[in-house]
Fold PmbA protein.
Amino acid sequence: MLSLDDARERAASLVKRAQRAGADAADAVYQGDAAESIQIRLGKLEDVERSEGEHVSLRVFVGQRSASIGTSDLTDAALDELAERAVAMARATPVDTYAGLAPEELLLQGAPPELDLSDPGEPSPETLREMAEACEDAARAVAGVTNSEGGAASSGRGRVALATSHGFCSGYETTSRSLSASVVAGSGTRMQRDYAWRRARHGADLLSPAEIGELAGRRAVARLDPGRLKSGPMPVVLDPRVGGTIIGHLVGAMSGLSAARRSTFLLDRLEETLFDTSVVVADEPHRKRGLRSRPFDGEGLPTTERNLVENGRVTGWLMDSAAARQLNLQPTGHAARGGNGAPSVSASNVHLAAGTASPAALMSDIADGVYVSELFGHGVNGVTGDYSRGASGYRIRNGEIAEPVAEFTIAGNLLGMFGGLTPADDLEWHRAINVPTFRIDGMTVAGD
């Protein structure tokens, strides 16, 4: 993997090659990463993985025609050929009136903000193995755990550099540390599986292996002997590890490209009060050590903090330059790059702000409801907002979490779900989308 200085130089040199080959404008992205993971199962080494990779992608513009291409061969000869092929491809594509680099006057100026995304320490393979072993040992020590799918520990490092033909050239480095355990409780037809997992930029921000392992074990045992729910409307409370998906659907619907294509359930609803006026959903690209923190976006524009929902309303579309041109608006610094294609739209570290009531207080008046700890299936329509997903979790009886339940579906429409959403006060920060426990009234549960 190239050093950060060399990564910036390689991206900039590829842009110059494209210009020499006939491109009117171009940008190039270098992405390099190295990772190591170790998995332990039943106290024995199960798997060791080591991966390293480098990739450059080039986007060129010939007039209003564009093409994107990439390679993992970073030799001079390969990059020369890549630039020539990209320009030839662009000349053969249809005209796109919205194609082009981000406006030059909007590019990030000066040094990018320091976000502390790189852990200087590097755990050895021996340390990773010890962490994975301790994680699994703690999970297997929980009474009722009968088998293990393994404990794992991993460490990774990545570098990103972006260069454009109108003068932007910068990059940053990130690290990743993770721990997980997955175990089985019970036996025969009673078996239940659950897990615990944490990921952070710095190893110091992880829970200890013992904490993660114990959490996985307790979760698996708690799921034993699930009952069934009767169908009907009831309050639904979502655990933070699944509640973030609801906010993820909101973020996806805020894509400016979807708005331009008129394919989002938020279309023509930006002026409506969709949430309770106390609800805030925020995007924080400059959060120190955040999993999705970034100093600039995939087109070189500065990233800025923004409330996505405020006073009950969605505050506008998330846009790269192409979407902004289609909507006759300004890009918002939400372009993301990956692979060989043009930028897509993505938020950074998103969170639903904590409410004022504890989870217990939030559930205290629910005589009959359900606490959802797992969701599966993909029954979400991004155009209409219709929502239906399989679930499992726990019955709520007289304001308290009771026996486990499984094999039911929760359904509604996301617009109505947003309006019925009430957050608790237990927000934690260890995911890309962070939410507290929250309650949604008015959903339909389909069980027996």
